Amino acid sequence: PGDEVIWFGPSPAYPVAPATDWTLLLGDETALPAIGAILEELPPGHRVLAAVEVADRAEEQPLPSRADATVTWLHRHDRDHGELLREHATALQLPDGRGRVWGGAERGVMRELRHHFVHARGLDRADTHLTAYWTQGETQDSEV
C-alpha cells in the first residue's frame, strides 16, 4: 500500500585518526552538508584543506570550523561536473605527514580520485574515504 520511501539521514561524524596530521575534504554541492558537519567536528588546530566545486559564487556557504581550515571554492560555470574538482585535487600540494582524504561527488570522479590518491600519491587505502553521491546520467529511480 503506497510508495516506498527511502530516507538517508546524517551519519556519524568522520573522526580524525589519532595519528593523522591533516585532512583533505573534496566534494561538490551534494557533499556540502557532510563537509560542513566534518569541519564542525574537527578539533582546534587540525590542518584541513577543503575544495568544493559549485556552479558559481552564489552557491558558496559559510563553513565554520575550529580546525585550521582552508576552503577553496571551485566555480564550475559552464564546465562539466567534477572537472574542476578533479584538476584541483590531482594538482594539490599535500601537507607533510600522514593525512586522510574524504570526498563526496559524482561516481566517476570519486573513482578516479581514489585511484589517484592511493596509486599516484601513495596514501593508504584505509586513509581514503571517497563516496559516490550520484552517478552522471542516472536518477535514483533508475536503480529501483
Automatic annotation (TrEMBL):
**A Pfam family that the UniProt record links to this protein:** SIP
Q: Which InterPro entries match?
A: FNR_nucleotide-bd (IPR039261), SIP_fam (IPR039374), SIP_rossman_dom (IPR007037)
Q: Which residues form the SIP-like Rossmann fold domain?
A: 21-137
CDD domains of this UniProt entry?
siderophore_interacting (cd06193)
Q: What is this protein called?
A: Siderophore-interacting protein
Q: Which organism is it from?
A: Streptomyces sp. SID7499
